[in-house]
Amino acid sequence: MPLGLTVTHQALGSFFILSVPATAPYFEAALARPELVIGLFPSVAYLMAMVSSVLAYRFFPRFGPLGTSNFAILIGLIGYLCLAMSTAWAFLIAAILMGIAYGPLNPSSSVVLYQLAPLRQRNVVFSLKQSGVPLGGAVAGLTLPFAANQLDYTGTIVLSATIVAAILIGFWQHSHRIDTGIETPGARSGGNREAMFHLGCQLLAAASFCYSFIQLVFSAFLGLIAYQFFDFTPVAAGVVLAVFHVSGIIGRPAWGLVADYLRRWWTVLPAIGVLTALLSAALVPLIRVDNPDPLLLYGLAAALGLCASGWNGVYVAELSNAVPSSALGSITGKGLSITFAGVVIGPITFGFTLETFNATVALLGLFAVGMIGAGLAWAGVVVSRRIVHAGLYPASSPA
After folding, report:
1. Radius of gyration of the chain from Cα atoms?
2. Fewer CB in 10 Å around end: N or C, the chain?
3. Are 107 and 339 in contact (CB under 8 A)?
4. Which InterPro entries match (predicted)?
5. CA–CA separation, 85 vs 34, rounded Å?
6. Secondary element (H or E) of residue 390
7. Does 1-189 match 190-392 in CATH topology?
């Protein structure tokens, strides 16, 4: 049940933010500059998530980790309802509130699952929890446009917000019961948290910046690549993007299973980076030939989803293994603030490169970012395991 709650929290947080691109055709006529608003929305949301993820652990002693997530979802729900007003200021307020809501979800769920998940299954448990992110995006993309066609945009927002509120009420008390069994050190306890964010954690976080950079680039631009370079229709380009997200849902627990199997001998985190880099480069010859086989792009989208969107759970598990459980909430939040920086910067940088140079340069840039991320991931895992084995920052190992 704790895993189900944390997956639901992740899915709802993702659902809020990704509801905007999913419903864009239905509200853009009401906005003066819809492209600007839609483009800035995720950047503002993830900037706020960077801040709230770092501060989340301070609320654990008072509300509990899952209780903190519940309050975060409540804040996100208020922001989601703001979308019904269809004004630029309402969207700005919605982005701020949704970002504040999104940041604490990972640190709080990490604290709970770290203490409850067996060590031998930690990678797959964290990966299953992270699968809630693409799941929320898939639910938004599949349900909101359909509902908007049957009702209208405002009615869809209100109806879906009511459903979310019912879900939140349904598991609020159960979250409290689980929190009573979770150790939550005080905000000032647990030693020097700045020192606990050691070199290994810093390298892992830097790798996550590279990985999230690429993941959000493909989330934002893969459909456009299919439309511009493969002459796909808008609907077919949307299917390509859906393949990418669905593969991410599959890839996260799949990589977690592999990581748990190889945990004693190796780590898969650098390998995911290398594969992502190679798959990014594989797009270059496809966009340079006339009439490429559409099946190649579908296959590449599936492979990219498995890798570029499948790394998150393994990363959070490696980070949790690198620090004491008493500091996990704050360290996870600090690491994820760097992850969110890649989310913000990636699409902007790729779009600028695409506009200034060309698609080949932009895609080869992703190859370079992926390889750098793989190197940082390998170094981060090696350094973290040496620090833990030396007993400098002993990570506890729950049964």
Report:
1. 20
2. C
3. no
4. MFS, MFS-Transporter, MFS_dom, MFS_trans_sf
5. 14
6. none
7. yes
Residues 57 and 60: their CA atoms lie apart, in Å, by 5
Total-model pTM:
0.81
pLDDT digits over 95-116, tens only? 999 999 999 998 888 888 888 8
Q: Which residue has the tokens 């299917």?
A: 239
CA angle centred on 102, ends 192 and 314, rounded to 5°: 65
Tokens of 108: 């709080």
Q: How far apart are CA 84 and CA 154, in angstroms?
A: 5
Mean pLDDT, range 60-70, rounded to an integer: 90
Answer whether residue 22 shows pLDDT above 90: no
Phi-psi region of 87 (alpha: psi -120 to 50; beta: other; left: phi over 0): beta
* C-alpha distance from residue 64 to each of 125, 129, 168, 348, 354 (Å): 20, 18, 16, 36, 45
**In Å, how far are 122, 152, 219, 249, 326 from 14, measured between CA atoms?**
22, 22, 13, 13, 27
Residues sharing a CB contact under 8 Å with residue 332, sequence separation 6 or more, in sequence order: 53, 106, 107, 110, 111, 316, 319, 320
| Top-tier CATH class for 1-189 | mainly alpha
Put residue 183 in one of left, alpha, beta given phi > 0 → left and psi -120 to 50 → alpha.
Answer: beta
Looking at the domain covering 190-392, what would its CATH class be?
mainly alpha
Q: Is the pLDDT of residue 60 over 90?
A: no
Give the pair of three-digit tokens for residue 50. Answer: 């960077």
% the chain with pLDDT above 70: 91
Give the best-scoring range by mean pLDDT among 89-93, 274-278, 357-361. 274-278
C-beta neighbour count of 143 within 10 angstroms: 16
The pair phi, psi for residue 198, each rounded to 5°, is: -80, -175
DSSP secondary structure string, 110-121? HHHHHHHS-GGG
Q: Please give the Cα distance from 238 to 242 (Å, whole number).
A: 6
Q: How far apart are CA 234 and CA 243, in angstroms?
A: 14
**Sequence-distant (≥ 6) Cβ neighbours of residue 369 within 8 angstroms:** 210, 213, 214, 277
- Which of 114, 71, 77, 134 has the alpha carbon at shortest distance from 311? 134
Q: Where are the domains of the chain?
A: 1-189, 190-392
